[in-house]
UniProtKB/TrEMBL annotation:
It comes from the Bacteria. GO terms for molecular function: hydrolase activity, hydrolyzing O-glycosyl compounds. It comes from Pseudoxanthomonas dokdonensis. Coiled coil: none annotated. This is Glycoside hydrolase family 2 catalytic domain-containing protein. Gene3D superfamilies: Glycosidases. Residues 83-171 form the Glycoside hydrolase family 2 catalytic domain. GO terms for biological process: carbohydrate metabolic process.
Length: 423
């Protein structure tokens, strides 16, 4: 089922006053109201991507993760106001996995004081839609006192700002977690649900956990690196940008937009670009700014119309005539051929960029910061459209071959291939 919007959106500035945002229940269905009007979240997690591109694609909202940098946050909110976008404003909350002790009363009180100050600072901005208190605080945690702290924050926010709902986001959920939230943070207005390859489990999880309240899918997207097939040495195999776009369409229609009773919308991850196992895994844009097929898909899902000019499509890379799942091992310094089949439905000429990076050794979780792996200087000779000859790195180790295919109109497709080099 498609979202309600049926035409390409245009930027229209928001009124110069704070919005009155409520969640109501009518005939067994939850609905988000902004100044009394129904508002279904067609949004994205904003990670350096263009707000204006989000509006052009039919988006009406984005979410963030932090608001501690005052100048940066105010500039972002002002830009959102001018673009007519509503913001689910993220408030950083310390995580147990990073060493925070929720049994330390003084530390918890100091954090609450900081949260109060941030809410007071931004609560009257016209672009604020709701508050997102922390992100995936249930990831690798053991102390349920964190939910008492979340409940205290929700109570404090409601006292300071009665106009905007409050949620926290969960990395998956089950009956035990929902029971803790109901008991320790009952004043939360809704929850944020974050699922990737397992989003097909969302309907069952809602039933099994006995969550009957409203929610937003605050993160969803391609199959996660922790869920993907692995090579024999443990490197995750990333889907192509074309495969990801196909998954976005199926997952949105079947598991996001299909819930008209409890679901208030979603924020696809990620409107921008970031390094997380690879530089291309989650971002809907390349680091150089080109939009991938996933952007086209989101425009279709939000508006019912594909863009006039679309991104290229491609098939997975073949290296030495084999697929990534074959766990390809190359001999150091030897020549090999890689092939990718790409096409452009608009007939635009395509430009190919091939490069090799070291395989990421990051063990971070929950989106923690990672460095882009180092580039590897190897000879790469194009032997025709979509064909490249590369010389395997001289040093044994784990590597990844990337290709980016651009259409010259601000769009690109991409794929990569993990491989190993032996001496």
């Amino acid at each position: 089922m498609l979202a309600a919007c049926c035409c390409r959106a245009q930027a229209s500035p928001l009124p110069e006053r704070p919005a009155e945002v409520r969640i109501v229940q009518q005939q067994g269905r939850y609905q988000l109201l902004v100044d009394g009007q129904p508002f279904h979240v067609n949004g994205a997690g904003l990670g350096g991507g263009s707000q204006e591109a989000l509006v052009a694609a039919g988006g009406n909202s984005f979410r963030t993760w932090q608001s501690g940098d005052v100048d940066k946050t105010l500039a972002m909110l002002d830009r959102a106001r001018d673009n007519g976008l509503r913001v689910a404003l993220g408030i950083e909350v310390a995580r147990e996995r990073h060493g925070f002790d929720y049994d330390d009363g003084q530390a918890v009180a100091q954090q609450l004081q900081r949260v109060r100050a941030e809410v007071a600072r931004y609560k009257d901005h016209p672009a604020v839609l709701m508050w997102v208190v922390g992100n995936e605080l249930n990831l690798e945690y053991s102390n349920p006192a964190v939910w008492n702290a979340v409940g205290q924050m929700a109570d404090a926010i409601h006292q300071i700002d009665p106009r905007h709902p409050v949620m926290t986001t969960l990395a998956g959920f089950d009956a035990g977690l929902i029971a803790l939230l109901k008991a320790r943070a009952p004043s939360l207005d809704l929850i944020g649900i974050q699922l990737y390859g397992d989003i097909d489990q969302l309907p069952r999880k809602l039933v099994d956990s006995d969550w009957t309240g409203p929610y937003i899918v605050t993160e969803w997207g391609p199959t996660g690196h922790w869920e993907s097939p692995l090579t024999s040495w443990g490197a995750p195999i990333e889907a192509t940008s074309t495969e990801k776009a196909q998954a976005l369409q199926q997952r949105y229609q079947d598991y996001v937009a299909s819930d008209q009773r409890q679901g208030l919308g979603s924020y696809v991850f990620l409107w921008g670009n970031k390094q997380e196992r690879t530089p291309t895994w989650y971002g809907l844009f390349l680091a150089s700014g080109e939009a991938t097929p996933g952007v086209d898909t989101m425009q279709y899902l939000w508006t019912g119309h594909w863009p006039a000019n679309r991104a290229p499509a491609l098939r997975p890379i073949q290296l030495d005539g084999r697929a990534a799942i074959d766990s390809v091992v190359l001999a150091a310094g030897k020549p090999y051929r890689a092939v990718v089949q790409a096409r452009d439905g608009d007939g635009d000429p395509l430009a190919y960029r091939w490069y090799v990076l070291q395989e990421s050794t990051a063990k971070s979780i929950g989106g923690d910061h990672e460095q882009v792996p180092a580039a590897v200087d190897v000879p790469l000779r194009e032997r025709g459209e979509g064909v490249v000859e590369l010389q395997a790195p001289a040093s044994a180790g784990n590597y990844r071959l990337f290709v980016e295919v651009r259409d010259g109109h601000g769009h690109a497709a991409h794929a990569n291939f993990p491989f190993q080099v032996s001496r």
